[in-house]
Amino acid sequence: MEEGRGRGRDETEDERADRRWGELIQEVRVAQTGVQILFGFLLTVVFTPRYPHLSQTDRTIYIVTVVLGAAATGALIGPVSFHRLVSGRRIKPQAVTWASRMTFAGLILLLATMTAALLLILRVATDDDYVPWLVAGVIAWYLLCWFVLPMWTRLRHTTSD
């Protein structure tokens, strides 16, 4: 049996890498758009009239959020640069693997960025004690949608070879 065959599709290793690359780039486009909009918004906050009046805790949360947003942006744009720099080197399967890892790291960083941004916004919007609980609920929702359900489905529907 040829390498890459017997995986549910009749494709070579190169064809599989091409398909996986196309799928990955489509997925990254969605995350890139979201993180770029969020990051752009975060960059403007420091220039608002309200920023000087934030508590030191809120300023620290803001700085952490901006750094997380920058890191998420880098990780989610990374696959494009990676592909461009290794294109034509006949290492697409390895490139897809590394780009996939960068994308996963970017999603983790995006989760952290969105959580920190939500915490900051809710702390500024209200001083109620329920804010940490509300943020924890949203984190649980993100984890369920982004990781738990996909992993549960993967484990439930993966057959052993």
Describe it for me?
This protein has 161 residues and is mainly α. It has one domain. It has 4 helices and no strands. It has helices spanning 13-45, 56-86, 92-125, 131-157. α1 runs parallel beside α3 (92-125). The protein is elongated and about 60 Å long. The mean pLDDT is 90. It comes from Streptomyces phyllanthi. This is Integral membrane protein. Keywords: Membrane, Transmembrane, Transmembrane helix. The chain crosses the membrane at residues 28-48, 60-82, 103-124, 130-149.
Structural class by SSE content? mainly alpha
- Give me the strand/helix succession: HHHH
Radius of gyration: 20 Å
How many angstroms does the end-to-end distance come to?
14 Å
The best one-word shape is: elongated
Largest sheet, described in full? Answer: none
Please report the total strand number as a whole number: 0
Domain count: 1
Rounded mean pLDDT score: 90
Helix content: over 70%
Number of helices: 4
Strand content: under 5%
List unreliable stretches of 5+ residues: none
SSE order and pairing:
Elements: H1 13-45, H2 56-86, H3 92-125, H4 131-157
Transmembrane segments: 28-48, 60-82, 103-124, 130-149
Keywords: Membrane, Transmembrane, Transmembrane helix
Protein name: Integral membrane protein
Keywords:
78% helix, 161 residues, mainly alpha
What can be said about this structure in brief?
InterPro entries: DUF6328. With 161 residues, the protein is an all-alpha fold.
